[in-house]
Structures are given as structure tokens and as C-alpha cells.
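step=encode ok
step=design start
structure_in=
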């Protein structure tokens, strides 16, 4: 009984102990649920649109989360009733009290200082409302999406007056960029590109890494860069963080399939046989095959791009890391581009934020296959090759016909050529900023850039050139390195008192550039196995090959002192003055230094009393500015006396290599100077639903470099490069941003750009140097026509076509062989049948101009709930293109394959019966409107996936359609040489169209 009672009590105690334990656990969990306060919420802008990617941080704690695509968030506080801090780029920071709250709704107000109102200018930033110059600022949210190769693709068509053209499908090709026309004949026509203030290539930084691109268009903005600013300045700012940021990983990827945008319509085998059956003369015997030569050397291109970005850190120390991998294969075999880019950016502040340190590192490598020139030449051969001929002979050798001039097997060209083009670039930059006193800071930037290139090239024994020249293979190898050291020291003081605000900036700049390289080549190798990796095995060097090796080295220094003062009164009136004093080792002894001043002013009309209360006028500012900029000479030693070793003379019983003059000295060599006046108006109406700007400018360039014939003696040789020429550019630019529709679920944003430029060469002679008749014929059609295509003449525009004006063709002649001849209209209006005796300047005239007078861009973005659609259109108008493919191959008299239009009647009258020649018939109207990019994206609701904060899937197409009357492959052509604008090269790598599938994920 006692035992039973004991057992009962023991069980009872055990029951109570378990009950007490579970009660304690319940109370602990219950209390813990109160101590770990959970806050849920949603974040919107003032228009009620959810904001994704907002950083929510528990105050005074290292506890942060990000809002998802619906603006929702959830955070567990480490300390009960802590306040929450909400931060987001483009919006004002906000602090919210969470006491006794579990769910909140937060509205963030736009920060004009961080979003639309801040632009990057030379050596700093400036509120847009204070800007007095012509500056275009494109933020990340406005970048073009899709298959983006470099920074220029992000802003194409979005900056009025900025011309960005490629016209090539080569995966390694770069864009041609110009701003407000051409201002030089021999210097660089491209703008100065600065990446975080350091000069660099526009393709060296990964597009995903870029936060904004600002374009300094007029001289009052660019003058602070002196001799490098005449063609404008493009300022690229990469992503960085300067506040406490939750650790974030973003992965972006896309894949693109590309094909020829257009194919030239040459005769195929069936067409040739049909024409032959009609009794027409075909330049080939029927080889019995049916070969599509273009298909033999091409296919679909494929590109993949992967980008991984990491960012995070505290308010004191934060970082951004970016890794980018690109792999592109071209539509031609053995053409490709592979790139690896790595960047690291870290910020650290100390001494109560008085000292801020930024360190950044950029490293990239690029490997490319066959050059654009090699692929394009093979393309030419594929077009003109006999489509009834086989690729290979029965014995397996390449089918060649070396009896025809410049007629080679394109498959052999592509298969028997090896080319490796490798580039590497490294840039290290250190920025230090010290706040000495309130409003006064001192900064220093040190940067080291190094670029290295290696080009290896070889042709096997089966290559046509070795068959012709009876050489057993050719190989070459060349390397080049450029080192650039930059040092910039600045001091800035900013002060506001009463209605006055002013900023004073002063600085010093130093740049040292060193370029050097080596090349070697050889031929007649015992085997193809060496490629370009054993040049010594070739027999040409041992046989006394004179040009087997070469090397070079050159350096230059550029030093500048600069200053700028900004003044504002009552937030209405702005004034800017800047000056740069710059010296270069490239200049002659008499002109080592130059000064580049600028002044501009602005009047915020909308803040005057008569408009202050007009609610629909949000911005109305009048701007005016004047500035002087320059173009620095390209070579390092153009002002020096140079000699070269050439020829031999007999001395002391042996032959000695002679030393002869190679360049005249020019102590007056200096920069090309451009003086520009710009007047602009910025506007914003109806709560900025309509906004934009209008600018009109006039640029006058003087001291342009050109090559002149000079007498000998007193000169050492018969030519010299001197600063003589003068040129003018004038035009206008319009930017119009509108928001036609904006509702809770749907919005439509539209941005249009339109620009016009007129160019005139006003002088090319002075008292010391002159050209005969004040004109020079430039450009060349190439073999076998070999005529100049353009004329450079004082009083005329750059890019003018010059030649014979064809107006008709002969028909109904008594002799049938006299039909199909060109009828030419002479300058006096008379008409004659073309003969070879008429090929002289007396019978030629201006035929058109190859530079578009008007450029346009139109970007439309539509957003519906989680979908968004962007459409980018670009256009160029009022210019001509010389269609060289038609000029060479739309002709039934040639000994090669021809365009299927070769037997069409010219002017609807007769089939052409005249050798290939350059006449105006082949000049076509180049006007076009292009669907440059369409991107459709969907922003996923990823709340169920805790590790994924945001995800975006998109499909994109580029170069989708062109509305034009041009008969060539693509009216958007390459525009490198200022003296041959509008030439559509028959050998160009044809442009492509691509379809892209992409994904962006934020963790």
C-alpha cells in the first residue's frame, strides 16, 4: 500500500514537473515573441507606386533587409521598439518610429538632389537647377536594356547631338562616336571619355557596373579639360555606396542569337543557269556544283554575358565588387570576342568622417579571333565567287582560280588564317578627400593605367597568298604597351550666406603617357605547326629579309592648372567662370602652353515673382555660355626634326646605310582650338509631365592641322604638318520628355531627341602655308576603279561627294554595243555620253554629302503592373551613301559573280554596258528610321523565396527593322574617317540582328 502510494506520488510529481516545464517554455516563447518584435510593411513613392530594393535598417544596429518588387518587407528587430531607417537612391532618407507597431506603410519623397537634379560635371557634381551649360545626364533607370556591348549602347539615341554608329556585326568592333559635328581633319573626332574622372576606353567598363553617364556637350562645360575637350566629354560614373548597406548579391545574365540583318542578293547557281539558258553571257563556266559561299563561311552568332555584383558594408566602410564575363561568336566562322572584367571599389571614412578614402581597381582581358578586315575580305570573295564551283577539288585541295585578279576561295581564307588578338587593361585609382574646415575640402586622385596588346597572325601553306607568292607560310607577332600615370589635386570651397551661394574650385593635373611596342614577321616555314610561335624557323630572315623586325617607343607629358567659380543669387541667377592653363610636350617650342577660358550664366525664370505662383510651370531656365577647348596633336614628336635610315652609300671600302631627313621641325606646332557659343532653355511643365531642353550653338575651330607641301631648301623635306585650317559647326538640339499616361497600374514615358548640324570649312591656307586652288580631293573607291570620291574645299562642308553626275543611259543606238552607256550632265548643264577622256575635274561636280544633317532618337517605356516594355528608335536624315557594293557588282560586264539586279534596265531603259566606274547613279538617299531595341520584361513576385529579393526576366531584340529607301545592307554605316564620310564599304563586316533572353536576380 505504501509502495503504491509512493508510486502514485512519484507519478504525480513527475506530472507536475512536466507541466511546470511546459509552462515555463510557453512563457519563454511568449515573452520572446514580444522581445523579438517583427515589423511588416510596404514602401511606396508619393504617387503610390511600390518601390523595390529599398534598404530598411534597424537604427544603431547591423540589421538590414531590402524591399521586394512589390515594395513589401519584413524585419525582426534586435531591440524592441527600435526606429527604422529607409534609404533609397533618388529618394530622401526617412526614419520611422516602430513603438507598439507590427505593420506599417511608408511613403518616400523624391530627392531632387539625388535623382533628376544632380549631374556630374568636370571635377565634381552640381545640382541640375544650377547648371549653366549644355549637359545631358542619363541615369541607370533610363539606360537601354538588352544585349549591351559597351557604355555607348546604353545611351544610343538618348543624347541630342551625340552620334553613335557601328554598322558592323564584328563582335570585336567598337562604335564611332562624335558630338556636334566634325571639328578636326587629322585629330581624333571622338569625345574624351572619363571613367570616374580617369581617361579610359568606353568599352573597358562593364555596362552593369555603370550608374550614370553625363555628356558635356558645349565648350563652357568642357573647357576645364582644355586640349582634350573640343569633341565633348563623356563622364561615366560607376556604382558605389556611401552609406550603410545590407549585403547584396546581384546576378545578371543574357544570351543572344544573332544573324545577318540583311544579305546581298547575288546570283545563285540556279539563277546563273537560267540566265545562261536565255543566251546571256555569264563570266563563269558551269562547275556543276550548287554552292552557297556565304553559308560556307558563316552561321548564327551566339553571345553570352554573365555579371556578378556584390555590395555591402557599414556607414564607415563599404564596398562594391563586380565580375563580368562575355563570350561572343560572330556570324563569320573564327570571329569571336571573349572578355573578363573585374572591378573592386571600397570606401572608408575616418576621423569623424573628415577623411574619406576611395580605392578602386579595374582589370580586364580580351581575346579576339580573326580581324574584321580578314573576315570582311572573305565576305567579298564569297559574294563574287562562282556559285556553280565546288569548295574543294576531287583531291581535297581548295578549288582556286588564280587567273582572275583578286579572286580567291573564301573558305580557304577563313580556314588557313590564324589570328589571336589579346588585350589586357588594368587601372588602379586612389581618391582621398579631406574636410579641412566647414565647406572646404581638399582632394587628391592618383591613377595608374596600363594597356597591353598582343597580335599573333599566321597563314598556312595552303593560303592563297602563299600559293601565289610560292611561300611556305607567313607569320607575324607584334606587341604594344601603353602606360598612363595621372595625378590630380583639387581644393573646393562652398559657402552659403543669406541669398548668396558660391563654390570655388582649384586644381592641378599631371599626365604622363608612355607607348612602346615590338613587331616581327617571317615566312617560308618548314611546317604550319608553329603558327606564329616560332618566327625564327622561317627562312626569310636568314635570307636577308630586310623588314623582319621593328620596334618603337614614345612618351608625352600633359600638365594643367585649372580653376572654376560658381555663383548663385537668390536661387534665380547663376554664373560660372572657369579657366585651364595647360602645357604639353607634344607642342612646339614657341607654343608649349595654352589657356582655355569659359564663362556661362543662367536665369531661373520660373522663380521670378511673375511666375512663382504659376503652378503648371515647374522649371524655366535660360542659359548662355562661351568656352574655348582644344584638340591635342596625335603624335608625340610632330614638332621635332626626325631622321630615318634609308638607302646606302659607299664609304671606306664598304656600303653604309644612309641617314636622311624624315620630318621638318615645327616650333609653332600647337593645339587645335575651338571657340563655342551655346544658348539653351530648360523647361518643365504640368508637374514635369512635360520637360526638356532646347540648345543652339556655334563652334569655330582654328589652327587645324593639315599637311602642306613646302620648298626644299630651306626645308629638309617637301612636306610639313602645320596649324592653319579653320572650320565652323553650328546647329540646334532638342530634348523632349513627356509622361502621356500615368495611373496606378499603367504608365507611359516618352523621350525624344532631335538635332541638326551644319559644317563648313572656312580656310585651309595662311601667309606661310597654302594648298593649290583651296581644295583637296580625298577618299578612294578602291581597285579596280580607284577614283577619289570626296572633295575638301574652302567654303564647302566636310563630307561632300565629288564626281561625275549621271542622268541617263543610252538606248536605241544604231550600233547595239553603243547602248547602255552612261550619259553625264556637265557642270554647265550640257549632257554627253561618258568616255574615258571625261575623267577629269572639269567635268565633275558636287553630288551630295555623306554626313546626316539631322539626327533623331525616340524612346518609349510602357509599364503595366509587373510588365514593362521599352522601344528605342533612332534615325538619320538628309544625307547620301555611296553604295560601293552596287557600284562594283551591279554590272553585267564584270568577270565575277554579280548582284541579281545587274541585268535590270538602268533608268528603266537599257541594261548597263560600261565598265565599273564611279558615277552619281550609285549615290543613294541614306535617310532611315531604325527600330534599334525592343525589350519586354517581367518583374517576378518572389516573396515565397526568402533568399531572392528581386528577379527580372526579359526578352529583347536589337536592330530589328529599318525603314529606308537605301538598297544596301544597312544605312547605318561606319564613320571613322572625316574625309570619306558616307562610304558604305563593300568589304565591311555586315551588321547583324539579335534576339536576347536575359535574367537579373538580387539575393
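sequence_out=
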Amino acid at each position: 500500500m505504501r509502495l503504491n502510494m509512493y508510486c502514485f506520488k512519484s507519478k504525480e510529481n513527475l506530472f507536475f514537473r512536466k507541466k511546470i516545464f511546459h509552462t515555463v517554455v510557453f512563457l519563454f516563447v511568449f515573452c520572446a515573441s514580444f522581445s523579438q518584435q517583427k515589423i511588416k510593411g510596404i514602401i511606396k513613392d508619393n504617387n503610390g507606386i511600390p518601390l523595390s530594393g529599398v534598404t530598411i535598417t534597424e537604427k544603431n544596429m547591423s540589421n538590414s533587409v531590402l524591399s521586394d518588387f512589390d515594395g513589401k518587407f519584413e524585419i525582426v528587430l534586435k531591440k524592441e521598439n527600435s526606429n527604422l531607417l529607409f534609404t533609397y537612391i533618388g529618394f530622401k532618407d526617412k526614419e520611422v518610429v516602430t513603438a507598439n507597431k507590427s505593420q506599417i506603410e511608408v511613403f518616400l519623397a523624391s530627392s531632387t538632389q539625388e535623382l533628376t537634379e544632380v549631374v556630374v560635371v568636370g571635377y565634381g557634381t552640381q545640382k541640375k537647377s544650377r547648371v549653366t551649360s549644355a549637359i545631358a545626364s542619363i541615369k541607370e533607370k533610363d539606360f537601354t536594356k538588352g544585349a549591351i556591348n559597351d557604355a555607348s549602347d546604353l545611351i544610343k539615341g538618348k543624347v541630342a547631338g551625340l552620334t553613335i554608329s557601328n554598322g558592323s556585326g564584328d563582335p570585336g568592333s567598337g562604335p564611332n562616336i562624335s558630338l556636334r559635328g566634325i571639328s578636326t581633319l587629322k585629330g581624333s573626332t571622338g569625345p574624351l571619355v572619363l571613367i570616374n574622372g580617369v581617361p579610359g576606353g568606353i568599352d573597358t567598363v562593364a555596362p552593369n557596373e555603370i550608374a550614370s553617364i553625363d555628356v558635356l556637350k558645349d565648350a563652357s562645360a568642357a573647357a576645364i579639360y582644355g586640349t582634350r575637350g573640343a569633341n565633348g566629354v563623356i563622364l561615366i560614373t560607376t556604382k558605389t555606396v556611401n552609406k550603410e548597406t545590407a549585403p547584396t548579391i546581384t546576378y545578371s545574365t543574357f544570351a543572344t542569337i544573332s544573324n545577318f540583318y540583311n544579305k546581298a542578293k547575288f546570283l545563285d547557281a540556279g539563277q546563273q543557269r537560267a540566265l545562261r539558258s536565255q543566251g546571256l553571257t555569264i563570266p563563269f563556266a558551269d562547275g556543276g556544283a550548287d554552292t552557297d559561299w556565304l553559308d560556307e563561311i558563316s552561321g548564327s552568332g551566339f553571345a553570352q554575358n554573365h555579371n556578378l555584383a556584390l555590395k555591402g558594408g557599414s556607414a564607415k566602410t563599404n564596398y562594391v565588387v563586380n565580375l563580368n564575363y562575355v563570350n561572343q561568336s560572330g556570324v563569320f566562322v573564327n570571329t569571336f570576342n571573349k572578355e573578363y572584367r573585374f572591378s573592386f571599389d571600397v570606401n572608408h571614412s575616418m576621423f569623424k568622417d573628415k577623411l574619406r578614402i576611395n580605392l578602386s581597381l579595374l582589370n580586364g582581358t580580351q581575346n579576339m579571333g580573326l580581324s574584321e578586315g580578314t573576315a570582311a575580305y572573305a565576305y567579298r570573295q564569297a559574294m563574287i565567287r562562282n556559285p556553280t564551283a565546288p569548295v574543294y577539288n576531287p583531291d581535297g585541295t581548295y578549288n582556286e582560280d588564280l587567273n582572275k585578279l583578286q579572286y580567291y576561295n573564301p573558305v580557304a581564307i577563313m580556314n588557313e588564317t590564324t589570328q589571336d588578338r589579346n588585350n589586357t587593361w588594368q587601372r588602379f585609382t586612389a581618391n582621398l578627400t579631406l574636410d579641412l574646415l566647414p565647406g572646404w575640402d581638399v582632394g587628391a586622385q592618383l591613377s595608374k593605367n596600363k594597356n597591353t596588346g598582343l597580335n599573333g597572325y599566321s597563314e598556312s601553306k595552303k593560303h592563297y597568298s602563299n600559293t601565289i607568292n610560292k611561300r611556305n607560310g607567313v607569320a607575324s607577332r607584334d606587341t604594344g604597351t601603353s602606360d598612363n600615370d595621372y595625378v590630380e589635386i583639387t581644393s573646393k570651397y562652398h559657402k552659403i550666406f543669406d541669398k548668396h551661394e558660391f563654390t570655388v574650385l582649384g586644381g592641378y593635373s599631371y599626365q604622363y603617357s608612355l607607348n612602346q611596342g615590338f613587331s616581327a614577321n617571317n615566312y617560308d616555314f618548314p611546317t604550319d605547326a608553329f603558327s606564329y610561335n616560332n618566327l625564327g624557323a622561317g627562312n626569310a630572315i636568314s635570307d636577308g629579309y630586310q623588314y623582319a623586325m621593328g620596334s618603337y617607343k614614345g612618351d608625352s607629358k600633359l600638365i594643367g592648372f585649372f580653376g572654376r567659380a560658381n555663383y548663385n543669387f537668390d536661387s534665380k541667377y547663376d554664373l560660372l567662370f572657369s579657366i585651364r592653363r595647360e602645357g604639353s610636350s607634344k607642342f612646339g617650342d614657341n607654343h608649349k602652353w595654352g589657356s582655355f577660358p569659359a564663362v556661362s550664366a543662367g536665369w531661373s525664370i520660373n522663380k521670378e515673382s511673375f511666375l512663382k505662383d504659376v503652378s503648371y510651370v515647374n522649371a524655366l531656365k535660360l542659359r548662355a555660355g562661351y568656352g574655348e577647348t582644344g584638340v591635342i596633336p596625335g603624335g608625340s614628336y610632330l614638332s621635332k626634326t626626325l631622321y630615318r635610315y634609308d638607302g646606302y652609300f659607299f664609304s671606306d671600302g664598304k656600303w653604309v646605310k644612309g641617314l636622311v631627313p624624315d620630318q621638318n621641325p615645327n616650333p609653332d606646332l600647337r593645339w587645335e582650338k575651338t571657340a563655342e557659343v551655346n544658348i539653351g532653355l530648360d523647361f518643365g511643365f504640368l508637374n514635369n509631365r512635360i520637360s526638356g531642353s532646347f540648345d543652339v550653338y556655334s563652334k569655330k575651330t582654328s589652327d587645324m592641322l593639315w599637311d602642306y607641301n613646302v620648298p626644299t631648301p630651306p626645308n629638309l623635306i617637301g612636306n610639313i604638318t602645320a596649324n592653319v585650317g579653320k572650320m565652323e559647326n553650328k546647329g540646334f538640339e532638342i530634348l523632349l520628355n513627356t509622361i502621356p499616361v500615368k495611373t496606378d497600374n499603367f504608365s507611359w514615358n516618352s523621350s525624344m531627341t532631335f538635332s541638326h548640324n551644319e559644317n563648313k570649312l572656312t580656310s585651309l591656307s595662311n601667309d606661310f602655308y597654302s594648298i593649290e586652288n583651296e581644295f583637296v580631293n580625298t577618299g578612294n573607291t578602291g581597285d579596280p576603279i580607284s577614283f577619289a570620291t570626296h572633295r575638301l574645299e574652302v567654303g564647302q562642308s566636310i563630307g561632300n561627294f565629288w564626281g561625275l553626275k549621271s542622268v541617263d543611259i543610252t538606248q536605241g543606238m544604231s550600233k547595239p554595243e553603243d547602248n547602255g552607256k552612261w550619259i553625264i550632265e556637265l557642270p554647265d548643264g550640257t549632257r554627253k555620253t561618258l568616255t574615258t577622256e571625261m575623267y577629269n575635274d572639269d567635268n565633275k561636280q558636287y553630288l551630295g554629302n555623306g554626313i546626316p544633317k539631322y539626327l533623331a532618337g525616340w524612346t518609349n517605356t510602357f509599364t503595366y503592373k509587373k510588365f514593362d516594355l521599352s522601344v528605342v528608335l533612332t534615325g538619320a536624315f538628309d544625307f547620301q551613301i555611296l553604295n560601293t557594293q552596287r557600284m562594283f557588282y551591279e554590272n553585267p560586264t564584270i568577270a565575277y559573280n554579280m548582284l541579281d539586279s545587274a541585268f535590270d534596265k538602268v533608268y528603266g531603259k537599257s541594261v548597263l554596258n560600261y565598265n565599273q566606274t564611279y558615277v552619281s547613279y550609285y549615290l543613294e538617299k541614306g535617310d532611315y528610321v531604325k527600330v534599334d531595341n525592343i525589350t519586354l520584361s517581367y518583374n517576378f513576385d518572389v516573396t515565397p523565396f526568402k533568399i531572392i529579393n528581386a528577379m527580372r526576366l526579359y526578352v529583347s531584340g536589337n536592330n530589328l527593322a529599318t525603314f529606308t529607301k537605301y538598297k544596301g545592307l544597312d544605312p547605318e554605316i561606319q564613320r571613322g574617317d572625316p574625309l570619306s564620310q558616307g562610304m558604305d564599304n563593300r568589304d565591311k563586316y555586315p551588321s547583324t540582328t539579335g534576339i536576347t533572353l536575359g535574367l537579373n536576380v538580387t539575393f
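step=design ok
step=annotate ok -> The longest helix spans residues 2-35.
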